[in-house]
Design brief:
DUF2073 domain-containing protein; two-stranded antiparallel ribbon; single chain; 6 strands; globular; about 30% helix; four-stranded mixed sheet
Length: about 120
């Protein structure tokens, strides 16, 4: 399991982030991102992952995130801040990471050995 700091990902553009995540998950790593992905980055990750799935190889990803704590101030709403980034994201191989329970403050997952 790798814990990835916000600083490490902030130095990458969206395509680099997605490639980095897919490459690491294909190595059977589970990633915990300190600061999650934007909705566009998550969509791109899912789209690229779907093109990489192979019947006897890469089985895809499992991804869970805590929602961002959105600021309710008028300034945040006007400038579209808050609520668009996740606080923490867990990403791993679909055949090894299973989400058992998720709510706004708790993610319970089960890690299993490679099938």
């Amino acid at each position: 399991m790798d814990l990835i700091s916000e600083e490490r990902l902030s130095g990458m553009n969206p395509v680099e982030k997605v490639r980095f995540i897919i490459d690491e998950v294909k190595k059977d790593k589970v990633l915990v991102l300190e600061k999650g992905l934007t909705p566009d980055e998550e969509a791109n990750l899912i789209e690229m992952t779907m093109t990489k799935i192979q019947p006897d190889g890469f089985s895809g990803i499992e991804m869970e995130s805590y929602p961002a704590q959105s600021g309710n101030s008028i300034i945040n709403k006007l400038f579209n801040k808050g609520g668009h980034r996740t606080r923490l994201t867990i990403i791993g191989p679909a055949n090894q990471l299973k989400t058992l329970k998720k709510d706004r403050d708790l993610i319970t997952t089960l890690l299993s050995s490679k099938e």
